[in-house]
Amino acid sequence: MRKRSIKIAGHATSISLEDEFWDALNDIAESKSLGITALIELIDKQRKTDNLSSAIRLYVLDYFRKK
Length: 67
Fold this sequence. Notes:
The protein has helices at residues 19-31, 36-46, 52-66, and strands spanning 2-8, 11-17.
């Protein structure tokens, strides 16, 4: 598990994800020509759960299921 601090929507937040999810998130961001922060901001706006880390995991899972 790796914790990273990022700034989204004008405020700092910490996100804890397994290394595999960080790697997958980076791959997805590259495929969409986005920075990882921009992708996380999109996930944050679309999430249906209170926990951002969980929302990111679900986004990654859904992305690869649809591929």
